[in-house]
């Protein structure tokens, strides 16, 4: 098939144009720097404020905060993990380290002894308290204890009581003894056994009214009832309450005295809820008092109360200790110290850890003169040292002083340092907000349109 001249001419011109365009494109690609320019052109051009880099606009103008002219900023690709790590590192020369007082040391394991300190109040030993009561009704004819603070013993009576009922029971007992003597010679065994039963019943009644065996023996020897029966205390100690007077009539069961043995006392110590897990029953406790600053009393934890005070957020711990010389008085304030040995773990100086409130950071020396931050988890603090539960390894070299200056250098460099809410390059994390306008300098009203602004 033949092509006419009218058709061939346009086709030839079109082919020549296509070849020329292709040759021009190939020539442009061969020119140096063309590829880099093309890649740069692909980035989106935005405008930002040199003083407030979080202000971003798609068009030129003025910063709505400080009024400075916005400058071009080409959106770059995100940095790789290695580049981010490099940005976090801070390099210091030997002179800078000396001026910044930066000292380093190696991380090592150690066994610490945590000291739990608390305040407490001296209390009576509840197992060493007793109450003297009237076992029978009657009249207190005589008191051998006339004031609070007197010492009483189980071997000496504290009072004498006249009780008609008790005198009648004593007479019944004496009659039972005579009857037993008369009936024991009877040939009828049941009659002889009945005499023994009467004596046993009368004797048991006397003992239930508090008459001791030696008093009953004295009654049998004298053959006469005792008009006044002595009253004894069940516990030797100090009289802390005197509730009766001489000549007073009392009923059966009325309290006469309260007795406490102060040779051993309790101290109820209040431990804060973050420290009471370290306290165990049987641990030794050192007790000191302002009354005796030169003396340290030693006791042991005898009980940990199973409830917490919601007002003070403390748990009470009972400490039992000896009280030689009765120096510790009930209701006295004391200080308690409990030393708790901790298991060996990684330990660093407290000055090496920077606590921002949200994270704990230690500056580790990656290589001589180059430091990078490392997030750690801390444990118990003892004096000037703190446990490291995770984040470091034994043998790591860390900055034990000058960490805040290293962190400041990292922020000036743009690495963000350890400050919360900062990203690489000093940009704020999402939701952190921007810098407020300078006091006394309102932002220009004409440039406050933020419809096309990226915060």
Automatic annotation (TrEMBL):
<feature type="domain" description="CusB-like barrel-sandwich hybrid">
    <location>
        <begin position="130"/>
        <end position="260"/>
    </location>
</feature>
<keyword id="KW-0472">Membrane</keyword>
<dbReference type="InterPro" id="IPR058791">
    <property type="entry name" value="3HB_CusB"/>
</dbReference>
<keyword id="KW-0812">Transmembrane</keyword>
<feature type="domain" description="Heavy metal binding">
    <location>
        <begin position="47"/>
        <end position="73"/>
    </location>
</feature>
<dbReference type="Pfam" id="PF25919">
    <property type="entry name" value="BSH_CusB"/>
</dbReference>
<feature type="domain" description="CzcB-like C-terminal circularly permuted SH3-like">
    <location>
        <begin position="347"/>
        <end position="406"/>
    </location>
</feature>
<feature type="region of interest" description="Disordered">
    <location>
        <begin position="415"/>
        <end position="455"/>
    </location>
</feature>
<dbReference type="InterPro" id="IPR058790">
    <property type="entry name" value="BSH_CusB"/>
</dbReference>
<feature type="transmembrane region" description="Helical">
    <location>
        <begin position="7"/>
        <end position="27"/>
    </location>
</feature>
<dbReference type="InterPro" id="IPR051909">
    <property type="entry name" value="MFP_Cation_Efflux"/>
</dbReference>
<dbReference type="InterPro" id="IPR006143">
    <property type="entry name" value="RND_pump_MFP"/>
</dbReference>
<dbReference type="InterPro" id="IPR045800">
    <property type="entry name" value="HMBD"/>
</dbReference>
<feature type="domain" description="CusB-like beta-barrel">
    <location>
        <begin position="264"/>
        <end position="338"/>
    </location>
</feature>
<dbReference type="Pfam" id="PF25975">
    <property type="entry name" value="CzcB_C"/>
</dbReference>
<dbReference type="Pfam" id="PF19335">
    <property type="entry name" value="HMBD"/>
</dbReference>
<dbReference type="Pfam" id="PF25954">
    <property type="entry name" value="Beta-barrel_RND_2"/>
</dbReference>
<keyword id="KW-0813">Transport</keyword>
<dbReference type="InterPro" id="IPR058792">
    <property type="entry name" value="Beta-barrel_RND_2"/>
</dbReference>
<protein>
    <submittedName>
        <fullName>RND transporter</fullName>
    </submittedName>
</protein>
<feature type="domain" description="CusB-like three alpha-helical bundle">
    <location>
        <begin position="194"/>
        <end position="225"/>
    </location>
</feature>
<keyword id="KW-1133">Transmembrane helix</keyword>
<comment type="similarity">
    <text>Belongs to the membrane fusion protein (MFP) (TC 8.A.1) family.</text>
</comment>
<dbReference type="InterPro" id="IPR058649">
    <property type="entry name" value="CzcB_C"/>
</dbReference>
<dbReference type="Pfam" id="PF25869">
    <property type="entry name" value="3HB_CusB"/>
</dbReference>
């Amino acid at each position: 098939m033949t092509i006419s001249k009218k058709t061939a001419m346009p086709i030839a011109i079109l082919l020549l144009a296509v070849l020329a365009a292709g040759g021009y494109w190939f020539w442009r690609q061969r020119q140096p720097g063309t590829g880099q320019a093309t890649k740069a052109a692909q980035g989106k051009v935005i405008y930002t404020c040199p003083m407030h880099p979080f202000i971003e606009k798609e068009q030129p103008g003025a910063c709505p905060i400080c009024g400075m002219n916005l400058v071009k900023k080409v959106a770059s690709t995100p940095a790789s993990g290695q580049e981010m790590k490099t940005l976090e590192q801070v390099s210091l020369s030997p002179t800078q380290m000396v001026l910044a007082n930066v000292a380093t040391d190696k991380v090592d394991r150690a066994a610490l002894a945590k000291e739990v300190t608390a305040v407490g109040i001296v209390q009576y030993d509840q197992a060493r308290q007793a109450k003297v009561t009237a076992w029978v009704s009657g009249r207190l004819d005589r008191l051998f204890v006339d004031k609070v603070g007197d010492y009483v013993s189980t071997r000496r009576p504290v009072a004498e009581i006249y009780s008609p009922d008790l005198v009648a029971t004593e007479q019944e007992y004496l009659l039972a003894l005579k009857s037993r003597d008369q009936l024991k010679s009877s040939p009828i065994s049941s009659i002889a056994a009945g005499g023994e039963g009467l004596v046993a019943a009368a004797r048991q009644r006397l003992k239930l009214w508090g008459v001791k065996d030696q008093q009953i023996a004295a009654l049998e020897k004298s053959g006469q009832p005792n008009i006044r029966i002595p009253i004894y205390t069940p516990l030797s100690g100090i009289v802390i309450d005197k509730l009766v007077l001489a000549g007073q009539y009392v009923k059966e069961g009325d309290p006469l005295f309260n007795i406490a043995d102060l040779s051993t006392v309790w101290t109820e110590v209040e431990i804060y809820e973050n420290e009471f897990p370290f306290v165990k029953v049987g641990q030794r406790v050192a007790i000191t008092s302002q009354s005796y600053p030169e003396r340290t009393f030693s006791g042991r934890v005898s009980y940990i109360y199973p409830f917490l005070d919601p007002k003070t957020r403390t748990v009470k711990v009972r400490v039992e200790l000896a009280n030689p010389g009765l120096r510790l008085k009930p209701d006295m304030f004391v200080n308690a110290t409990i030393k708790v040995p901790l298991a060996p773990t990684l330990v660093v100086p407290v000055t090496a850890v920077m606590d921002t409130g949200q994270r704990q950071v230690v500056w580790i020396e990656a290589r001589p003169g180059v430091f990078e931050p490392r997030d750690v988890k801390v444990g118990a603090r003892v004096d000037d040292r703190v446990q490291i539960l995770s984040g470091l390894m034994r043998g790591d070299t860390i900055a034990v002083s000058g960490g805040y200056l290293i962190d400041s250098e990292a922020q000036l460099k743009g690495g963000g340092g350890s400050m919360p809410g900062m990203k690489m390059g000093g940009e704020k994390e999402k939701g952190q907000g921007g810098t407020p306008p300078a006091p006394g300098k309102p932002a220009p009203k004409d440039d406050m349109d933020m419809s096309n602004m990226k915060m």
